[in-house]
Design a protein that fits this description.
The protein is built from five helices and seven strands; from the N terminus they run αβαββαβαβαββ. It is α/β, with parallel strands linked by helices and 178 residues long. It has one domain: Vaccinia Virus protein VP39 (Rossmann fold, 3-Layer(aba) Sandwich). It has a seven-stranded mixed β-sheet, sandwiched between helices. α1 runs parallel beside α2. The protein starts with a helix and ends with a strand.
């Protein structure tokens, strides 16, 4: 199991996000740990749709699509396939290509998180949940203010399995009401 698996498992233990028979979308799914974990949690009747620009090896029970979420037509493609507001949970462990320079990496991370929220606005069901990896730093608080009206509860967690030197945290945005 990868470090990513344990991060999502810790989030699940704290917040009980996943339930049987849910529909989950994993944005930035490669190499597939979060999708595998989500599928385990939602069971055989639950559905996991996974998207990434990198191809991943087939995973039993997971619907994988090689797509770039930054593509202008991505929201149209995903809503044509899944429909509008049908997803209970959106998960995203997306990360920009790391330069090692915080003033470059943090804004890129925030832009990816904004794209995830834009996708949520099309596919997430009312009362749904979104889990997003994001880097803390300049612009982080502004992003939280931006998403705060869309969800009833916003939690920020740094899982124990995250490297202590990493700027990454996870936003658990609960009870979508936008």
């Amino acid at each position: 199991m990868s470090r990513a698996w344990f991060k999502l498992e810790e989030i699940q233990k704290c917040y009980k996000i996943f339930k049987y028979n849910m529909i989950v979308v994993d944005l930035g799914a490669a190499p597939g740990s979060w999708s595998k974990y989500a599928k385990k949690m939602v069971g055989t009747k639950g559905i996991v749709y996974s998207y990434d620009i990198k191809k991943i090896n087939p995973i039993n029970g997971i619907n994988f699509f090689k797509e770039n979420i930054l593509n202008m037509n991505f929201i149209k493609k995903i809503t044509n396939y899944i429909g509008f507001n049908n997803v209970q949970v959106v998960i995203s462990d997306l990360s920009p290509k790391i330069s090692g320079i915080a003033s470059i990496d943090i804004p890129k991370s925030i832009e990816l998180a904004k794209k995830v929220i834009k996708i949520c606005n099309s596919i997430l069901k009312k009362k749904g949940t979104c889990i997003i990896k994001i880097f803390q730093g300049n612009g982080f608080k502004k992003f939280i203010k931006y998403i705060n009206p869309m969800f009833k509860k916003i939690k920020i967690i740094k899982p124990y399995s995250s490297r202590t030197t990493s700027k990454e945290v996870y936003i658990i945005a609960i009870n979508y009401n936008f």
